[in-house]
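S., here's the first fold you wanted:
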Amino acid sequence: MSRRSIIVLAAAVVMLYFSIILFMLSPLHGAKSAYYGNSYMNHFGFRQVPSVNWCKELKWRSPPSPNVVALVSYPGSGNTWLRYLLQQATGIVTGSIYMDYGLRVHGFPAENVTDGSVLVVKTHEAPPLEPDKFKSAILLIRNPRDAILFAMVFVHMFNNLLSFTHLIHSSS
């Protein structure tokens, strides 16, 4: 790989990371939004989800349960949707082993919380690094065709990024 290719690839990666960071932080600084059809757009042009109206006021388990329950699924299987339904039904926050700032500011305040103070803990990992952490699990299974399609969309998006980088290099 030539030096020029490495520089072009590095520039593409930096732009991608900057875009992701901008997208994650845009709801945090109180960007004004305008309503277009069925979604909100902030001044960066990114879609924003309207604030969530909860059926019950969200609360943490008190005292925390000694039994931490894992909510395990393949990515794209509806894990976040099930967490939303559980929070609506119980009023108790659900956690995650991940830190998704977009979810955190839009109704999931327990992102990156993995103890017994939450109802369940979202994970796509298997098996856990700490095998004794979870005392039980809920396994969420989606139609494999749909889950595989979801995974292939992500692979396709990644390949398109690589093709775009190659196109830039070959045209110069």
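And the second, which I think is the more interesting of the pair:
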Amino acid sequence: FISQAQNELVNAISKTEAGLITTNEEWQQIKPNMDKVAIYHTKLLSLKATMSMLSGRSKQLQERANKLKLMKLNYLSQVDHIRKLEQQKDLTIAARTSLSAPVSPEMSEATVQPLTIEKAVPTSPSPTVAAKKSTPRTASKSKKKPKARQVFLDDDQDTDTSSWIPKKSLSQKDLRVDK
């Protein structure tokens, strides 16, 4: 068994000696490639440093994205909560107005159906819902009269007020051209 191991060792040594470069030409062919080893080594170190820096940055960005997702979920839940509160307020106002006004049987069915439909249809929360406030509509609005415009003239000037004559407004008759 030992002689067999010695024979294998002798064969391995002879193979390595046969594979050794002995001529100068062979060295000249290999030398440019061997000179590039130092350059490749520095590039490898640079790539390792870049990879570690990018992995750290990636972790930071991932944590930031997770925080933003949580903030978005909190915001959407707040919007949904506000929307539900507004919807409850609208329903209570609608219930108050329907109870205070005398209602015929036909009218009560018509008002109950839209309220049940609104409850059945879920709406997705939108950012603009929180900005809008719903105001209850009153049944009758009284029209306000437009206020008359008042003009105050400065009479301190020494101009003749009688020289001013208002312009005549054109009527439909004045605008027509006779043929």
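Why I say that: The chain is about 65% helix and 0% strand. Helices lie at 2-19, 24-100, 105-120, 127-131, 172-175.

Talk tomorrow,
H.
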